[in-house]
């Protein structure tokens, strides 16, 4: 298995405690807490991730 390449959002500050990292693989999207890199991970399908991003964008609009 190829190692995952983790990315942090540009909206996340370098000193804030509320950061998540995301890695994309051919079969799934992987999400983890940036403070606990060896901790639990959430894995979702690409479709679920797309739906989540659309929801987050709608929810952030006034």
Structure description:
The relative contact order is 0.16. It is built from 1 helix and 4 strands; from the N terminus they run ββββα. The protein is 23% helix and 26% strand. It has one helix at 46-59, and strands at residues 7-8, 20-24, 29-33, 41-44. The mean pLDDT is 89. The longest helix has 14 residues, at 46-59. It is an alpha+beta fold and 62 residues long. A 4-stranded antiparallel sheet has the order 1-2-3-4. It has a domain at 19-59. InterPro entries: DUF397. Residues 4-56 form the DUF397 domain. Pfam families: DUF397. This is DUF397 domain-containing protein.
> Which percent bin holds the helix content?
10-25%
Form type? flat
Strand % is 25-35%
Give the overall average pLDDT.
89
Count of discrete alpha- or pi-helical segments spanning 4 or more residues: 1
List unreliable stretches of 5+ residues: none
Order of helices and strands: EEEEH
As laid out across the biggest beta sheet, the strand order is 1-2-3-4
- Sheet bearing the most strands, described? 4 strands, antiparallel
Radius of gyration: 13 Å
Give the distance, in angstroms, between the N- and C-terminal Cα atoms: 43 Å
Number of strands: 4
Class by SSE composition: alpha+beta
InterPro entries: DUF397 (IPR007278)
Protein name: DUF397 domain-containing protein
Domain DUF397: 4-56
Pfam families: DUF397
């Amino acid at each position: 298995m190829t190692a995952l390449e983790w990315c942090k959002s540009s909206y996340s500050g370098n000193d804030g405690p509320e950061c998540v990292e995301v890695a994309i693989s051919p079969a799934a999207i992987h999400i983890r807490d940036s403070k606990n890199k060896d901790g639990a991970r959430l894995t979702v399908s690409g479709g679920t991730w797309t739906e989540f991003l659309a929801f987050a964008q709608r929810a952030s609009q006034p």
